[in-house]
Predict the structure.
Amino acid sequence: MVREAVERLIQLIEEEKIDFSEFEVLLSAEEKTILNVLKRKKRAMNINEIRNTIIDDFIKLIKYYGQIKELEDKIRSYSEERKPIYPLQRISEKKYSNRLNLKFNIDKSFNIKVIDISSLENELNNLKRNKPRMEFWEGEFEDIPELFIKVYEELKQRKILKNGKILERDKRVVAELINKHGIARIPSYKTIERILTELEAGGLVVSRPDSGGRGKKLYAINPKLLKKLEE
Protein backbone atom coordinates (compact mmCIF):
# COMPACT_ATOMS: atom_id res chain seq x y z
CA MET A 1 0.00 0.00 0.00
CA VAL A 2 2.76 2.43 1.03
CA ARG A 3 4.95 1.29 -1.87
CA GLU A 4 2.14 1.89 -4.35
CA ALA A 5 1.59 5.37 -2.95
CA VAL A 6 5.28 6.26 -3.26
CA GLU A 7 5.49 4.81 -6.77
CA ARG A 8 2.55 7.02 -7.66
CA LEU A 9 4.37 9.94 -6.06
CA ILE A 10 7.51 9.26 -8.12
CA GLN A 11 5.34 9.13 -11.23
CA LEU A 12 3.86 12.53 -10.37
CA ILE A 13 7.36 13.94 -9.84
CA GLU A 14 8.43 12.54 -13.22
CA GLU A 15 5.41 14.15 -14.83
CA GLU A 16 6.35 17.42 -13.09
CA LYS A 17 2.93 17.64 -11.48
CA ILE A 18 4.51 18.01 -8.03
CA ASP A 19 7.96 18.93 -6.75
CA PHE A 20 9.99 16.57 -4.55
CA SER A 21 10.39 19.32 -1.95
CA GLU A 22 6.61 19.23 -1.46
CA PHE A 23 6.90 15.58 -0.45
CA GLU A 24 9.91 16.12 1.82
CA VAL A 25 7.82 18.13 4.28
CA LEU A 26 6.15 14.84 5.23
CA LEU A 27 9.46 13.31 6.32
CA SER A 28 11.06 13.50 9.76
CA ALA A 29 14.35 15.33 10.25
CA GLU A 30 16.22 12.01 10.52
CA GLU A 31 14.60 10.67 7.33
CA LYS A 32 15.46 13.85 5.43
CA THR A 33 19.03 13.72 6.74
CA ILE A 34 19.54 10.16 5.51
CA LEU A 35 18.00 10.98 2.14
CA ASN A 36 20.29 14.02 1.88
CA VAL A 37 23.32 11.76 2.33
CA LEU A 38 22.19 9.34 -0.38
CA LYS A 39 21.12 12.13 -2.75
CA ARG A 40 24.37 14.08 -2.54
CA LYS A 41 26.80 11.19 -2.33
CA LYS A 42 25.16 9.52 -5.36
CA ARG A 43 26.50 6.07 -4.54
CA ALA A 44 25.59 2.94 -2.62
CA MET A 45 26.53 3.19 1.06
CA ASN A 46 26.33 0.95 4.10
CA ILE A 47 24.88 2.09 7.42
CA ASN A 48 28.28 2.89 8.92
CA GLU A 49 29.22 5.12 5.97
CA ILE A 50 25.89 6.95 6.16
CA ARG A 51 26.30 7.59 9.89
CA ASN A 52 29.90 8.75 9.51
CA THR A 53 28.83 11.18 6.78
CA ILE A 54 26.26 12.67 9.15
CA ILE A 55 28.95 12.99 11.84
CA ASP A 56 31.22 14.77 9.33
CA ASP A 57 28.79 17.70 9.34
CA PHE A 58 29.45 18.19 13.04
CA ILE A 59 33.19 17.56 12.76
CA LYS A 60 33.46 20.62 10.50
CA LEU A 61 31.90 22.78 13.22
CA ILE A 62 33.98 21.15 15.96
CA LYS A 63 37.18 22.05 14.09
CA TYR A 64 35.85 25.52 13.26
CA TYR A 65 35.14 26.52 16.85
CA GLY A 66 38.25 24.76 18.15
CA GLN A 67 40.54 26.58 15.72
CA ILE A 68 38.93 29.91 16.58
CA LYS A 69 39.65 29.36 20.28
CA GLU A 70 43.26 28.34 19.59
CA LEU A 71 43.86 31.46 17.49
CA GLU A 72 42.24 33.71 20.09
CA ASP A 73 44.37 32.13 22.83
CA LYS A 74 47.52 32.57 20.74
CA ILE A 75 46.75 36.23 20.02
CA ARG A 76 46.03 36.86 23.70
CA SER A 77 49.27 35.14 24.73
CA TYR A 78 51.42 37.08 22.26
CA SER A 79 49.74 40.34 23.27
CA GLU A 80 50.71 39.66 26.89
CA GLU A 81 54.33 38.99 25.87
CA ARG A 82 54.53 42.30 24.01
CA LYS A 83 53.49 44.40 27.02
CA PRO A 84 56.27 46.94 27.81
CA ILE A 85 58.27 46.85 31.05
CA TYR A 86 57.84 50.20 32.76
CA PRO A 87 60.64 51.92 34.77
CA LEU A 88 59.04 50.98 38.09
CA GLN A 89 59.18 47.33 37.10
CA ARG A 90 62.84 47.66 36.10
CA ILE A 91 63.74 49.30 39.41
CA SER A 92 61.96 46.59 41.34
CA GLU A 93 63.72 43.89 39.35
CA LYS A 94 67.11 45.55 39.89
CA LYS A 95 66.39 46.05 43.58
CA TYR A 96 65.49 42.42 44.17
CA SER A 97 68.37 41.20 42.02
CA ASN A 98 70.86 43.19 44.11
CA ARG A 99 69.24 42.06 47.33
CA LEU A 100 69.62 38.43 46.32
CA ASN A 101 73.10 39.17 44.93
CA LEU A 102 72.20 37.49 41.66
CA LYS A 103 74.29 37.77 38.53
CA PHE A 104 72.98 37.29 35.02
CA ASN A 105 75.02 36.63 31.90
CA ILE A 106 73.25 38.06 28.87
CA ASP A 107 73.95 36.40 25.56
CA LYS A 108 74.28 39.30 23.12
CA SER A 109 73.55 37.02 20.20
CA PHE A 110 70.05 36.40 21.62
CA ASN A 111 67.38 37.55 19.19
CA ILE A 112 63.87 38.44 20.21
CA LYS A 113 61.34 36.77 17.93
CA VAL A 114 58.85 39.30 16.61
CA ILE A 115 55.36 37.90 16.35
CA ASP A 116 53.16 39.43 13.67
CA ILE A 117 49.87 39.54 15.55
CA SER A 118 48.13 41.29 12.66
CA SER A 119 48.58 38.20 10.47
CA LEU A 120 47.03 36.05 13.20
CA GLU A 121 44.14 38.49 13.51
CA ASN A 122 43.58 38.37 9.75
CA GLU A 123 43.62 34.59 9.88
CA LEU A 124 41.06 34.66 12.69
CA ASN A 125 38.78 37.07 10.83
CA ASN A 126 38.97 34.98 7.65
CA LEU A 127 38.11 31.87 9.63
CA LYS A 128 35.11 33.54 11.26
CA ARG A 129 33.82 34.64 7.85
CA ASN A 130 33.84 31.06 6.58
CA LYS A 131 31.72 29.22 9.09
CA PRO A 132 30.83 25.80 7.66
CA ARG A 133 27.19 25.01 7.00
CA MET A 134 25.40 21.76 7.66
CA GLU A 135 25.38 19.88 4.38
CA PHE A 136 23.29 16.87 5.40
CA TRP A 137 21.87 17.41 8.89
CA GLU A 138 18.22 18.51 8.98
CA GLY A 139 17.53 18.21 12.70
CA GLU A 140 17.88 20.73 15.47
CA PHE A 141 21.20 21.18 17.26
CA GLU A 142 22.73 23.49 19.84
CA ASP A 143 25.06 25.83 17.95
CA ILE A 144 26.88 26.91 21.10
CA PRO A 145 30.66 27.47 20.66
CA GLU A 146 31.52 26.40 24.22
CA LEU A 147 29.94 22.97 23.69
CA PHE A 148 31.84 22.35 20.45
CA ILE A 149 35.08 23.52 22.07
CA LYS A 150 34.62 20.99 24.87
CA VAL A 151 34.34 18.22 22.27
CA TYR A 152 37.35 19.59 20.36
CA GLU A 153 39.55 19.67 23.45
CA GLU A 154 38.48 16.21 24.58
CA LEU A 155 39.23 14.78 21.12
CA LYS A 156 42.70 16.33 21.21
CA GLN A 157 43.30 15.15 24.77
CA ARG A 158 42.37 11.59 23.78
CA LYS A 159 44.57 11.93 20.66
CA ILE A 160 41.63 11.18 18.38
CA LEU A 161 42.03 14.50 16.57
CA LYS A 162 45.55 14.53 15.10
CA ASN A 163 46.82 17.06 12.58
CA GLY A 164 43.25 18.14 11.96
CA LYS A 165 42.15 14.63 11.02
CA ILE A 166 39.88 12.01 12.59
CA LEU A 167 39.96 8.37 11.52
CA GLU A 168 36.72 6.77 10.33
CA ARG A 169 36.83 4.26 13.18
CA ASP A 170 36.97 7.10 15.74
CA LYS A 171 33.86 8.88 14.51
CA ARG A 172 31.80 6.71 16.82
CA VAL A 173 33.53 8.50 19.73
CA VAL A 174 32.75 11.87 18.15
CA ALA A 175 29.05 10.95 18.04
CA GLU A 176 29.17 9.91 21.70
CA LEU A 177 30.67 13.27 22.69
CA ILE A 178 28.15 15.21 20.60
CA ASN A 179 25.35 13.36 22.40
CA LYS A 180 27.08 13.68 25.80
CA HIS A 181 27.42 17.47 25.59
CA GLY A 182 23.86 17.95 24.37
CA ILE A 183 24.76 19.34 20.95
CA ALA A 184 22.48 16.95 19.04
CA ARG A 185 21.23 13.37 19.00
CA ILE A 186 23.13 11.51 16.29
CA PRO A 187 20.89 8.64 15.10
CA SER A 188 22.11 5.20 16.17
CA TYR A 189 22.94 2.40 13.74
CA LYS A 190 19.64 0.70 14.57
CA THR A 191 17.67 3.90 13.95
CA ILE A 192 19.34 4.43 10.58
CA GLU A 193 18.70 0.80 9.62
CA ARG A 194 15.03 1.12 10.58
CA ILE A 195 14.60 4.33 8.57
CA LEU A 196 16.33 2.81 5.53
CA THR A 197 14.07 -0.24 5.74
CA GLU A 198 11.00 2.02 5.81
CA LEU A 199 12.28 4.17 2.94
CA GLU A 200 13.06 1.04 0.96
CA ALA A 201 9.56 -0.32 1.59
CA GLY A 202 8.25 2.98 0.29
CA GLY A 203 10.34 2.81 -2.87
CA LEU A 204 12.48 5.86 -2.12
CA VAL A 205 15.56 3.74 -1.45
CA VAL A 206 16.91 0.56 -3.03
CA SER A 207 19.42 -1.89 -1.56
CA ARG A 208 21.68 -4.79 -2.45
CA PRO A 209 24.09 -7.07 -0.55
CA ASP A 210 27.62 -5.78 -0.11
CA SER A 211 29.91 -7.64 -2.52
CA GLY A 212 32.62 -7.42 0.16
CA GLY A 213 30.99 -10.41 1.82
CA ARG A 214 30.62 -8.82 5.24
CA GLY A 215 26.88 -9.42 5.41
CA LYS A 216 26.13 -5.72 5.14
CA LYS A 217 23.62 -4.13 2.82
CA LEU A 218 24.36 -1.19 0.59
CA TYR A 219 21.69 1.47 0.15
CA ALA A 220 21.14 4.06 -2.56
CA ILE A 221 18.39 6.46 -3.48
CA ASN A 222 15.92 5.15 -6.09
CA PRO A 223 17.65 5.78 -9.47
CA LYS A 224 14.39 7.04 -11.00
CA LEU A 225 14.05 9.61 -8.26
CA LEU A 226 17.72 10.61 -8.39
CA LYS A 227 17.55 11.10 -12.14
CA LYS A 228 14.59 13.42 -11.76
CA LEU A 229 16.22 15.39 -8.96
CA GLU A 230 19.33 15.97 -11.09
CA GLU A 231 17.38 17.48 -13.98
Observations:
- The chain has one domain: 2-100+113-230.
- The first helix runs from residue 2 to 14.
